[in-house]
């Protein structure tokens, strides 16, 4: 009996050690791994995602469109600072902004050394496209049907001042590049024609000629009181214009001839458009001294 005691004592000691080991292994909470290397397994996807994001190319920021003064502009042909002539083009009401770019391309091909700049109107049109100032189209149609154009021609549209100021700043930007007023021809279609005449009459120091395609008179009283020394005017209008009456084109030419006796009248057999005859008249101005 005395010889078995050490065996029992040794067995009891081994049992105590085993229980202590089992208790120690269970002491860690379930969310913590006893193996330090195991903690990196869950972090690997996040690290890889961060590395992938850092390695992926960044999306380039869209370039700002070119401008002339405060207006977006499409530049064609020679640089304005070295061009022989500069044609500045103003589109009509509802144009998306680049409607005269094709015309500008034709001009620079026909006149080497020419610069053409098609300006975009400053305001978006609610129905789409752009506008120099808002127009009540239904009122315009009613005025045509009722013969009320004289009343419309005496009004100055809301927003016309801001449109004129924007184009004036664009022309001054050309002057800052060294472009002389005699080199600048301002040409506009429809609403752009009205604006071109308005700018030419108010600021003759900034340009040498104005071409009005299918336009009309606005602010008649003030236009009649203007003087535009040194500025040549051309008015082109279609005899089948269903938007602005042919008689309005005649009236515009008559008003301008009182200011510039050499003002040219270019009627054509066509609708509300920039006609071949009107383009030819512009090219003549761009070629002459």
Topology:
Layout: H1 5-25, H2 44-55, E1 67-68, E2 71-77, E3 85-90, H3 101-110, E4 114-119, E5 123-124, E6 130-131, H4 137-146, H5 149-154, H6 160-176, E7 184-189, H7 191-202, E8 209-213, H8 220-224, E9 232-238, H9 246-259, E10 264-268, H10 276-287
Parallel strand pairs: 3-4, 3-7, 7-8, 8-9, 9-10
Antiparallel strand pairs: 1-2, 2-4, 5-6
Describe the protein's architecture and organization.
By secondary structure, this protein is α/β, with parallel strands linked by helices. It has a single domain, classed as Rossmann fold. Helices cover 41% and strands 17% of the residues. It contains ten helices and ten strands. It has helices at 5-25, 44-55, 101-110, 137-146, 149-154, 160-176, 191-202, 220-224, 246-259, 276-287, and strands at 67-68, 71-77, 85-90, 114-119, 123-124, 130-131, 184-189, 209-213, 232-238, 264-268. An eight-stranded mixed β-sheet has the order 1-2-4-3-7-8-9-10, with helices on both faces. Helix 6 packs across helix 7 (191-202). 34% of the residues are buried.
């Amino acid at each position: 009996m005395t010889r078995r005691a050490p065996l029992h004592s040794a067995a009891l000691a081994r049992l105590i050690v085993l229980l202590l080991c089992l208790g120690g292994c269970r002491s860690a909470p379930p969310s913590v791994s006893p193996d330090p290397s195991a903690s990196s397994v869950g972090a690997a996807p996040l690290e890889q995602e961060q590395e992938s994001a850092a390695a992926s190319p960044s999306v380039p920021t869209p370039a700002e469109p070119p401008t002339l003064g405060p207006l977006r502009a499409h530049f064609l042909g020679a640089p304005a600072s070295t061009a022989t002539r500069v044609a500045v083009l103003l589109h009509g009401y509802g144009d998306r902004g680049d409607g005269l770019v094709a015309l500008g391309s034709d001009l620079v091909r026909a006149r080497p050394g020419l610069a053409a700049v098609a300006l975009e109107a400053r305001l978006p049109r609610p129905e789409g496209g752009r506008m120099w100032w808002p127009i009540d189209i239904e009122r315009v149609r009613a005025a045509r049907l009722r013969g009320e154009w004289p009343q419309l021609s005496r009004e100055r549209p809301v927003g016309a001042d801001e449109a004129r100021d924007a184009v004036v700043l664009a022309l001054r930007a050309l002057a800052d590049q060294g472009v002389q007023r005699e080199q600048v021809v301002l040409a506009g279609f429809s609403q752009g024609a009205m604006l071109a005449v308005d700018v030419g009459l108010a600021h003759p120091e900034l340009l040498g000629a104005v071409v009005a395609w299918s336009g009309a008179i606005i602010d008649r009283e003030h236009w009649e009181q203007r003087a535009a020394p040194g500025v040549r005017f051309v008015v082109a209008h279609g005899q089948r214009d269903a938007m602005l009456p042919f008689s309005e084109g005649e009236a515009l030419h008559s008003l301008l001839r009182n200011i510039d006796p050499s003002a040219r009248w270019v009627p054509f057999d066509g609708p509300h458009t920039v006609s071949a005859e009107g383009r030819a008249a512009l090219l003549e101005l761009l070629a002459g001294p």
